[in-house]
Write a structure and sequence with these properties.
The chain is of the alpha/beta class. The protein is built from 30 helices and 20 strands. Strand 16 and strand 17 form a beta hairpin. It binds (S)-3-Hydroxyhexanoyl-CoA (3H9).
């Protein structure tokens, strides 16, 4: 049985240990130096030594099991920290070949090896499992299997591109590798990646038994093909061509060709699938080597480390203890409230969802439950599990049940008087130790706290729409927010699977603050006569998921108008006259997608059509202006980057790290550019400064460079020092 080591023993223990008993070798992974098991240089060495012993037939071993003693992870992949040491493609290629070599040795052992997976088996972790003879995974919620390498700008480099399509077929393998999606054990079983699913407590026992059964040939492993797909139809040339051309089209429409890794992955698999595994591995290693040192990969690795660090750090000078969150109450059962309810329930939290009218509470409940049911279906949950999940959300029109809540989130209309009233009502109904979070996007938290009897409990919890999909939560502290409140809000955001950043109270907080001048600039371009589709295309070509004009329609023109006015008032000295386009649109009753009338046309089902030409008349028919794409990108990109730097210099942001995380996860700032601060480091502060000065000379003060940027350029400094993510 698996033994749990105490801390002292763990520190002294090597990352891999092997115990042999009755012909079964149990290889236990538990790297004492790391929070998760990773395939580091050290682990490769240790595993190599163990393989020497097994290859030499030590102790009459007939079968082996690889199991992890780390809670929550089996193997989290290659050590991403070590990627920072790659000086050039040769280093990265050598790392890939070292990983491949080790896994080849596991695959070629004369004895069967069973991967006993409890926790995450990602990237090189899953590749290790693929090199084993048989795979058993637990049904624990922490168990997830996937090849997320493209999200880091690379491709699987330890045999994944060769082994997975030979095991489960081209379409399944490409889908997993191109999206980086992670499967739970049941879905992995269905996909043919694992052979069995068991409860965690019996994992080792079952794995040992099956390993011995494989050795005795009482159990036949499902063998991958030496070349080609196991699905015969996929091996027919026209079918194969179709699969790859469709996959390529899918990648191009999603990435606009800005991410080299998925396109290279397709080439590697297409060329390698009919060759021997060794030849396919060779193609894989070369591609891995070249991709790992691209600027795109470096930026994506930066995004991984910054977002992980933000998740694990509430940004407090002195650490404070977070209260556990078992129950949350939400006031306001609109679209946002319902989304917060669903996301919380999915994380195992009980939810009270309150609205004034029974119909409103019922509608919110329906929205939350539908969202939960949809996700449960995707996870292939059993009926009773779905019921248990949806039953976690309870509607109410009274403040009943609030006293038992650990945190209350108000998500009522953006009206200060209403919010003040609601805060007082919550405080009357809830317990003394409750955290009072507000999902406001425009009202200063300091102002909200003025109505509170316990202002130190008040904090901003700014979710993004749709809550279920958007990964960021912006946590906003005012000067009097207690540290334990910040820690608790941060813990809550993390518990519901979000990436939080903690910022100080200021107009627009961080995310809307940097979005606002960008949106205003897009509206100014429109007034100058640049076509809306040209503006949108320029920015999606730069890497944003949608262009700013489309974004206006999505957020709602009335919402954008309100936010724009707040920002224009707060920064009137340098923002200049706000663009009038948005006012004209709202006056004309155009609110965007929500009422089917915006910059673009919408059909009866809400499907977006082309640009609505009538908009040009509405804004005074400016004469059509052809503007080079690069110029549009420069104006919009730099105005946002510059504003981000200002928020850091003003102390709204605690760190450049949070600024990058907020922009990437809240707005969709192109991840391959790493975020605004990483962008400045990549382009060079001096270059960004000069370009802003040129824009300022042409268009005025709104492009005046942030003082911090001037300092960085003068002192030749970077936001992230070499070696930082
Ligand atoms: C790869 O495998 C390439 C191969 O194909 C080829 C090789 C030749 N490396 O997220 P958490 C750290 S590419 C280094 O808070 P959780 C993380 O930074 C890899 N460090 O825990 C954090 O550090 P800190 C493909 C790693 O329980 C700490 O561990 N694999 C790695 O919420 C805890 O992390 C991936 O992309 C790593 N691979 O989630 C998987 N993984 O405490 C990346 C984690 O200093 N990892 N750390 O802030 C994850 O998705 C999650 O960390 C995981 C655990 C689900 C495993």
């Amino acid at each position: 049985m698996a033994t749990i080591l105490d801390e002292e023993q763990a520190q002294a223990a090597p990352p891999v240990r092997m115990e042999i008993s009755d012909g079964l070798a149990v290889i236990r992974l538990n790297d004492p130096a790391r929070p998760v098991n990773v395939i580091s240089e050290g682990l490769l060495r240790e595993m190599g030594d163990l393989l020497d012993r097994l290859e030499n037939g030590e102790g009459g071993v007939r079968a082996a099991v690889i199991i992890s003693e780390k809670k929550g992870t089996w193997i989290a992949g290659a050590d991403i920290e070590e990627f920072k040491n790659f000086q050039g493609p040769a280093d990265a290629e050598a790392a890939s070949r070292a990983g491949q070599e080790l896994l080849n040795r596991i695959e070629r052992l004369r004895i069967p090896v069973v991967a006993a997976i409890d926790g995450a088996a990602l990237g090189g972790g899953l590749e290790t499992a693929l090199a084993c003879t048989y795979r058993i995974a637990t049904d624990s919620p922490k168990t997830k299997l996937g090849l997320p390498e493209v999200q880091l700008g690379i491709i699987p480099g330890a045999g994944g591109t060769a082994r997975l399509p030979r095991l489960i077929g081209l379409r399944g393998a490409l889908d997993l590798m191109l999206t980086g999606k992670q499967l739970d054990a049941r879905r992995a079983l269905k996909a043919g990646i694992v052979d069995e699913v068991v409860p965690a407590p019996i994992l080792l026992e079952v794995a040992g038994r099956q390993a011995m059964a494989l050795a005795a040939r009482k159990l036949q492993p499902r063998a991958a093909r030496p070349s080609g797909s196991p699905d015969r139809v996929e091996n027919l040339l026209p079918m194969k061509r179709l699969i790859f051309s469709k996959a390529r089209q899918g990648v191009m429409s999603k990435t606009h060709g800005l991410y080299p890794a998925p396109l290279r992955l397709l080439k590697v698999v297409e060329r390698g699938i009919d060759k021997s595994v060794d030849e396919a591995l060779d193609l894989e290693a070369k591609a891995f080597g070249e991709l790992a040192v691209t600027p795109e990969a470096r930026s994506l690795v930066h995004v991984f480390f910054t977002s992980t660090a933000a998740k694990n750090d509430p940004g407090l000078e002195t650490p404070a203890k977070a209260n556990p969150i078992d129950q949350v109450a939400i006031v306001g059962a609109g679209f946002m409230g319902a989304g917060i309810a669903a996301t919380s329930a999915e994380a195992g939290i009980r939810v009270r969802l309150k609205d004034v009218k029974p119909e409103a509470a019922a509608k919110g409940l329906r929205t939350a439950r539908e969202s939960l049911a949809k996700r449960a279906k995707r996870k292939k949950m059993k009926r009773f599990q779905v019921t248990a999940l949806t039953d976690r959300v309870q509607p109410t029109t009274e403040y009943t049940g609030f006293h038992a809540s650990d945190i209350v989130v108000e998500a009522v209309f953006e009206d200060l008087d209403l919010k003040h009233r609601v805060i007082k009502e919550i405080e009357d109904a809830a317990g003394e130790g409750v955290v009072l979070g507000s999902n406001t996007s425009t009202i200063p938290i300091t102002k909200l706290a003025e109505a509170s009897a316990r202002p130190d409990h008040v904090i901003g919890l700014h979710f993004f729409s749709p809550v279920e999909k958007m990964p960021l939560v912006e946590i906003i502290t005012h000067a009097g927010t207690a540290d334990w409140v910040t820690a608790t809000a941060h813990g809550y955001a993390k518990k519901i699977g979000k990436t939080p950043i903690v910022v100080h109270d200021a107009p627009g907080f961080y995310v809307n603050r940097i979005l606002s001048p960008y949106m205003a600039e897009a509206a100014l371009l429109l007034q100058e006569g640049v076509r809306m589709e040209d503006i949108d295309r320029a920015m999606t070509d730069w890497g944003f998921p949608v262009g700013p004009i489309t974004l206006y329609d999505e957020v709602g023109l009335d919402v954008a108008q309100k936010a724009g006015k707040i920002m224009a008032a707060a920064f009137s000295d340098r923002m200049g006259n706000p663009p009038t386009v948005v006012d004209r649109m709202v006056e004309d009753g155009r609110l965007g997608r929500k009422n089917g009338k915006g910059f673009y046309t919408f059909d009866g089902d809400g499907k977006k059509g082309g640009p609505d030409e009538a908009v040009y008349a509405l804004i005074g028919n400016p004469s059509k202006k052809e503007m080079p794409k690069a110029e549009i990108q420069e104006r919009l990109g730099l105005v946002m980057v510059n504003e981000a730097v200002r928020t850091l210099e003003e102390g709204v942001l605690r760190s450049a790290r949070d600024g990058d995380v907020g922009a990437v996860f809240g707005i969709g700032f192109p991840p391959f550019r790493g975020g605004p601060f990483w962008f400045v480091d990549t382009e060079g502060a001096q270059s960004v400064l000069e370009r802003l000065r040129a824009l300022e000379a042409r268009y005025g003060k709104r492009f005046a460079p942030a003082a911090r940027l001037e300092e960085m350029a003068r002192d030749k400094r970077r936001f992230f020092e070499d070696g930082d993510a």
